[in-house]
Amino acid sequence: MAASPSPLILTEDERYDLITSNIQEVLRPDIIRGILPVRPLEIFWGTATTGRPHAAYFVPAIKIAQFLRAGCKVKVLLADLHGFLDADKAPEATLENRARYYERVIGALLQAVGVGLHNVQFVRGSSYQLTPAFSRDLLRLSKRVSVHDAVKASSEIVKSMGEPVMADGLYPMMQLLDEEYLSVDAEFGGVDQRKTFALANDTMTKALGFKTCAHLMNPMVPGLSGGKMSSSDPKSKVDLLDDPATIHKKIAKAYCAPGKIEGNGILAFIQHVLLPYSQLQSPDGKTAAISVVLRDQTEPTTFSSFAEVTEAYAADYLTPQLAKQIVEESLIKLTTSIRHQFDTDKEWQRIADAAYSNLTVSPRGQDTQKKQNKKEKKEKKEKKEKKANGTNPTIQDGAVDDQ
């Protein structure tokens, strides 16, 4: 595990810049600006406890490390009921073990990037979402939010493959109430949650008299394989427990077209994980540094910004093979402590087996999975056709199963 650097004194502007670093959009930045001079900002990140967390989870982990460096108080919501509502991704019989698995693996992940777990509070959604008070507020909210707006808010999050069901509308409304019940000032998530965040911004104060929170959205980072890094497809993801040989094999097959910046999951990982991680670990806490020997050179070149990386990549000094080497070596190093914790923790191994082995999927879940598989096959076929016609295949966004 990387050692946490000594706390640094940051100005108010430096704290805000660190909080919003690599963030695509902020809703109500005035809320954050107003709180920073007065007290620590309280923020939460929620993740539905569905498939096994993979390498894309390093993106929110790095942001959590940055939030803490900026003096924020952070809560991690293990959204077990949301996982159950989302097309039965987490069958009811697995909810307890999925939540326990997530708490262990995310805790190990945060420690791997230098976060002390005493600074992070883990909260399970079902610990308050099944209370009479929450149910009452959910009913109150249901009278003020239309079915259209509720389903629209979840359209980019919930994997509905046909006619929307009631769960698709409950999902975002419960997320709105999470902000109130977790007593936070801001919520962090992917930009795919923008519709839910906008609904919260328009509704919480007007409908229920609750305070309005700020929302920070990171971009949807491309997957390492050139498509979505899916928890349900072992071939498309780098699992946090993969051994070095498996990581090498998967990175070797990763999509990394020469000179192509957009949609390049390898470069995206350097931008959103490795550069900010190196910055957090630097003596001054501000200077990023990634070193590699470039093509036709004998001495290492050190990159301190993503602009320098992309310039070298576009000029082919930083080749796809070298970029993959950087990511592979870093992933192996970052996941070593996670694998060690798992290998030496018999209880965690038992939880993993109970959470993800021999699952019985409901009829609706089977139907949804069949449709999803059919959709993915169609997309792969279209990519092959485009490639055969001389065009680049479309790169889908990789995503963490944010709440």
Automatic annotation (TrEMBL):
Enumerate the SUPFAM superfamilies for this protein. Nucleotidylyl transferase (SSF52374)
Catalytic reaction equation(s): tRNA(Tyr) + L-tyrosine + ATP = L-tyrosyl-tRNA(Tyr) + AMP + diphosphate + H(+)
Keyword line: Aminoacyl-tRNA synthetase, ATP-binding, Ligase, Nucleotide-binding, Protein biosynthesis
Q: What is its EC number?
A: 6.1.1.1
Q: Residue ranges of region Disordered?
A: 358-403
Q: Name any one Pfam family assigned in the record.
A: tRNA-synt_1b
InterPro entries in the cross-refs: aa-tRNA-synth_Ic, Rossmann-like_a/b/a_fold, Tyr-tRNA-ligase, Tyr-tRNA-ligase_arc/euk-type, Tyr-tRNA_synthase
Concerning its family, UniProt says: Belongs to the class-I aminoacyl-tRNA synthetase family.
PANTHER family per record:
TYROSINE--TRNA LIGASE, CYTOPLASMIC (PTHR46264:SF4), TYROSINE-TRNA LIGASE (PTHR46264)
- This chain belongs to the protein called Tyrosine--tRNA ligase
List the source organism. Answer: Letharia columbiana
